[in-house]
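Final report, section 2: Outcomes. Of the targets proposed, Membrane protein is the one most frequently requested by collaborating groups, and we therefore present its record in full.
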Amino acid sequence: MFWPMLAISLGFLGLAVLGVLAVRVFVEVRRLGRQVAESSQRITLAAEDLERSAEGLARTGEALR
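The predicted structure is given below as tokens.
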């Protein structure tokens, strides 16, 4: 009777540990997703700034001709 109860309790503890780890992974994945979205927005803004700068430079180069 001892061994089956030990096996059941160890199995339950193993599932509990896996559940806790799954929640931690879920939280970290959400945090990573937010960071990726923020980085994507920053890259988009930098690309727009670069486009505006390139247009101004192109106009300046055409004026010098």
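The first helix runs from residue 2 to 64.
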